[in-house]
Amino acid sequence: MEIRKDILWRVYLIYFIICLFGVAIISKICIIQFSEGDKWRAQAESFSTKIFEIEAVRGNIYDANGSLLATSLPYFEVGMDVNTDAITKEIFNDNVDSLSICLANLFQDKSWKDYRKCLVKARRDGDRWVVLQRDVSYTDLQKMKKFPILKRGKNRGGFIYLQTNKRERPFQGLAARTIGKLNENGTGKSYGLESAFDSILVGTTGERTMQKIAGNVWRPITDDNQIDPQDGDDILSTIDINVQDVAENSLMNCLKKHGADHGCLILMEIKTGEVKAIANLKRNGKDTSQYLENLNYAVGVATVPGSTFKLPSLVAAMEDFNVSLNEIVDIGEGTCFYSDAKVSDSHHPAKSRITVKEVFEQSSNVGVTKIITKYYAKQPQQYIDRLYKMNLNDPLNITIPGEAKPYIKNTKDKTWSKISLPWISYGYETRITPLQILNFYSAVANNGKMMRPMFVKEIRNRGKTKKAFQPEVINESICSQATVKKAKEMMEGVVLRGTGKSLAASNYQIAGKTGTAQMGIVNGKMTYQASFVGYFPADNPKYSCIVVVSAPSGDSYYGGAVAGPVFKDVADKVYSTSLEIHKEINSVQPQFSSKAPSVKCGYQPEIETVLTTLKVKNSTNDAKAEWVSSSTKDSVSVSLFSNKTEAELKRGIVPNLVGMTARDVLYLLENNGMRVKLIGSGAVATQSISAGATFIKGTQIILQLI
Question: What integer is the mean pLDDT of 408-423?
Answer without folding.
Answer: 94
